[in-house]
Hints:
Helices cover 64% and strands 3% of the residues.
Amino acid sequence: MKERVLHTLHSFAGNELLQGGEKTMMDILKKELIKGEEYIREKSREIVTAVLHNYGDFNITTIDKFMLKVVRAFAHDLKLPINFEIELDDKTLVSNAVDQLLMKVGENEALTNALIKYSKHQTEEEASWNIETRLKEIAPQLLKEQGYRHIQKLKTFTLSHFIEQNKLLTESIKIYEKKQTKIAKEALAKIASKGLTGDAKDMNVTHPGDGAKLSPESKGHGAEKKGKAE
């Protein structure tokens, strides 16, 4: 939590153009405080300086933790065990969220097409085509502290944005694969032109520095070289 707050304050204190979650937060603060961006940036610089000089006193807690402290302080009055613990049922939360998402299949055309495409991709990768299971495996990442900052950056993205990005990435992968296939074919053609088969048994690869040399290891070539040496 401290890291996230300090990261946002540091972004506000700088002069760089804000993007993603920081820009959204700045817009909210300007609206709530009825102040300009320069005012908020200046205050952020003052707060960052104050925090760095008094980091030992810097403490941040969530409303959940605050309420937990209050309840724990009155545990006896509330007839609760002194050392009680609260657990979040992540599995139920994730399961309900995924179920609600899948209920929209057939109603939301864009979502339906995206999920079908994802299912086909899973099948092509020889993974389970059952997207429900896969989504329930991935979804818990959204509940982790590390994923919060990335989620904030993606909040402004709509489903159409993700679909467009997927198209761009897919096209980039195809171009890369085509390029690598071309290089591989050229390498095989060059190997064949030297009378080699390309089989690892027929070749000896050494790595002098950053380069690499291919030398024949077949019995015929070996015997020829040995004869010349003698």
